[in-house]
Amino acid sequence: MSEFDLIRRYFTRATPNTVLGIGDDAALVRINGDMKLAISTDMLVSGTHFFADADPYMLGHKTLAVNLSDMAAMGAQPRWVTLAAALPTVDEAWLAQFSAGFFALADEYQVELIGGDTTRGPLTLCVTILGEVPHGAALRREGAQIGDDIWVSGRLGDAALALAHMQGHIHLAEKEFAACAPALHQPSPRVALGLALRGVAHSVIDISDGLLADLGHILQCSNVGAEIQFDMLPISDVMRTLSRAIVHPSPLGGGVGGEGGFDLLPALAQRCILSGGDDYELCFTVPEAQRPRIEKISTQLNLPLTRIGVIVPGSGCRVLSTDGSIISIQEAGYDHFR
Questions:
Q1: I need a surface site. Which of 5, 57, 149, 308 has the fewest CB within 10 A?
Q2: Does position 25 have pLDDT exceeding 90, yes or no?
Q3: Do 107 and 163 belong together in one domain?
């Protein structure tokens, strides 16, 4: 199969909202006059972002989902994407499943694939996404103000916990892994939440590298600090079981278990919750007066939104335990070059 046969068979579909889609040297799109373009690119590399034997349908979903999450964080309506793929071989069964997963999510969010590229090489997937946002309505990382509430959507840490299980750092029972795995393999981009936060939130970011790392970007861009309460962070029942032994701060970034001293399970749970990454939830800051509005949005979207802390003067983020002491954190989040 040639490169162009591959594209025609697995990645070419009608694009009714595009002036010119796949098949020429470039796509043509029409932007409404009162809109701005939001553009983002994410790359997924085999062995770095996913296992080589990852389920292709779920990988297709995630390849697009991580880009939709960027649009959510900007308050943009996703419209078009391009896909560049380096493939070690032409595996038609794999391509059929990957494209099915990709287009299932694209259909859900009415996003059109309008171009891209394919080549032979180590499995690498790169999506560029384009979205529309009204002039002056884009959500930004900068803008957090002292006294703002800090909120997060969904639950934190399940994706990192599932990955830890797959890497052999912890063993989860079959039911526990089944409860955590969807967060890792098929994250739910919070596009509707991003649209609802236009004109409400002072700052927004999606949590891809871990809560502390990504909240840290808001703090740095806004020249403020933060205090968050560890026991207020939204976590699953599986994670709660592992983290319940976190009682006192530890210089190793963990907690104290029973008589055996340092307990690796709560330490791992803490890292997953605070710095594990791959959550693809939204973290945002909102004035205290907007609490009823956020609660209404939560109800309308049927999406848990949890207030976890407050923006304060200074810099950096302090994580407080139940007794008010500061938890020592050694790992702030994922960094590709560390």
A1: 5
A2: no
A3: no
For residue 247, the model assigns a pLDDT of 38
In the chain, the percentage of residues whose pLDDT exceeds 70 is 90
| Residue 73, domain extent | 3-134
Q: Which of 232, 206, 164 is nearest to 76 (CA)?
A: 206
Strand order in the sheet with 305-312: 203-207, 281-286, 149-153, 305-312, 225-229, 316-320
pTM: 0.88
Find the mean pLDDT for residues 18-31. Answer: 79
* Burial (CB count <10 Å: 0-12, 13-18, 19+), residue 53: exposed
The answer to whether 96 touches 10, Cβ cutoff 8 Å, is yes
CATH number at residue 120: 3.30.1330.10
Residue 47 has pLDDT above 90, yes or no: no
**Tokens standing for residue 262:** 């340092």
